Description:
By secondary structure, the chain is an alpha+beta fold. The protein has a domain at 6-129: 3-Layer(aba) Sandwich (Aminopeptidase), CATH 3.40.630.
Amino acid sequence: MKISENWNINNLTMRKAKIDDIKDLNSICTSWEDKILLEGDVFPKGYIENCINNGDLPPIKGADISNYYLMIIQKTDGEIIGFFDLYHGYPNNETTWISIFLIDKAVQGNSYGKEVVESICQECKNSGWKSIGLGVHLKNWKGLRFWTSNGFDRIIGVWGDKEYSETTFSIIGLKKELL
């Protein structure tokens, strides 16, 4: 069960990231101005390069880059407006996991995110996956609203610090069944 490395929806293309995309993807990472406030840290140095070269693999035995996809969201005019990743087979063999989904701040609010999530769900369903899971930091209210409004409404866990403060962080795991 593998997704396509390239698919189109309306005026957007989803395609596997290449080394040539690093500059644009780093720029999109920089556009997330409140990441440190919501997640407690900036992107690690070389994050995009590491994702392309080694994958952002889940903490499971046997995790392999062949199950990892860093995907570009690109307009038909060639402008890269976002990216996401998928890992096939985490946290179970019927689920694909999204560990990052980011739309450039300059184009947010144009329904690109909703459109892309719908296409990811359809692509995964067509490839035989039963569900998609992801984690959202609990302080990321915008992200929580976005994902729950897109059908990620089953809670699969909460992980992180036990006490709430400005310097503590927790993640809620959400899942969407692909019926």
